[in-house]
Amino acid sequence: MSNLAAFTIGPEKNKFLIHKKFACEASPIFKSAFNSSFVEGKSQEYVLEDTTEAAFTMFTEWVYTGRLEINFTRYSAETVDRNGKCGLLQCNLMELWLLADKVMAPSLQNRAIWLLAESYSKFLCFDLNKLDRVWEGSGVDSKLRLYILQHFALKMGKGVYKSHGDSFPKEMLLEMSTLHWQNREDKVTAMPSMETFYVKEGI
C-alpha cells in the first residue's frame, strides 16, 4: 500500500486510490503534499471536498493514460434537456477544469475546455447549472470564465437571459457588459480560436 495515495473526494467523502508516482507526476501540488512533513505526507491521504466524484474519475483516467476521451455518441438526444441544458457532461467538464486548476494541471485544463467547446458543437446547448460554481471557484483572470463569457456574448441570443435570468451570477453579468464593450471596440464578431482560452503549459 505504500506506493498508493488515497484521495477523499467531495462532501460524500468517496475514497479513491491512485499510485503515488502517477499522482505526483500529474500535479506539483500532490508531489509537494505527499512528500512533506504535513498531514498529507504522514497519512498519504489528500482531501478534496470541493470537487465531484465524476470530475475526479475523469482526472484519474488522465493521470493513468495521459488522455481524456469522451464518447459523444453515448450522449443521445434524450440526454439533452429541452430547456437548453445538456445533462451532466458539461457540468462534469467544468468541475474537471476547476479541479485541474486547483492541482495545477494546465494540460488537463486545456483538454477539459476543448471538450466543453466540442460538446456545444455536438448538442448546440450550454448547461447553466454550474455558472455560480465557476464564478465562485475561479478568479477574474480565469480562462474558463473568459470562454463562457465570450460564448454567451457571441453565440447566445437575448432570450436566454430573459428565460434563465436567475442562472447567471451577478458578477458574470457585470463582466459580460465589459466584454461586450471590449468586443465592439476590438471589432470581435466571431468566437476566438480555442488557443485563446488555453492555460500556459510548462515553465
From TrEMBL:
Spans traversing the lipid bilayer: none
CDD domains per record: BTB_POZ_ZBTB_KLHL-like (cd18186)
InterPro entries attached to this UniProt entry: BTB/POZ_dom, SKP1/BTB/POZ_sf
Gene3D superfamilies attached to this UniProt entry: Potassium Channel Kv1.1, Chain A
PROSITE patterns xrefs: BTB
Domain BTB intervals: 3-72
Top-rank taxon, per record: Eukaryota
PANTHER family xrefs: BTB DOMAIN-CONTAINING PROTEIN, BTB DOMAIN-CONTAINING PROTEIN-RELATED
This protein's name: BTB domain-containing protein
Source species: Rhynchosporium agropyri
